[in-house]
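User: For my dataset I need records formatted as: sequence, then structure tokens, nothing else. Please produce one.
Assistant:
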Amino acid sequence: MATRTRNPGTRYAGRDWLADCAPTPDAVHRAWSVGELALIPSGLRWLAVEAPFLRTLDAMQRMAPDALGPVLAYPAAERAWWLVPLDAAEQLDDVARLTVRPPGWPLYCPPVNRPTNGRVWLVRPHGSGRLTDPTMLGACFGPGGRLPAEAFG
């Protein structure tokens, strides 16, 4: 199976974008085709930021939709992972409730359109490459959990 390139507005754009974030997109598609999670390591196009599940739900409600990128959840383990830009570590390293995972860290992902083995996309990748704004993420999880005034225009 060849790497797919699609317009972000197409039906499979999010799935294909996510698979293309792995060193071997074909292996990702094979895992999904048999109902398994696919290992997609961080560091090629994004970093994964681990957060408590319930705090993630709260933060998502307070963020503007255009500040949100893909968010993966594993509710049974009370964990969630936010996909952020590669340079976000320095902005988030001192936020106590967040753990910035290093490049190469394995994130086990379900397909974008259905939960698999208890994992589900709260915000699905949609193919544009948009990632969560680390400034907004840090503000939601930092002391007081308040967004900066400029976030509201």
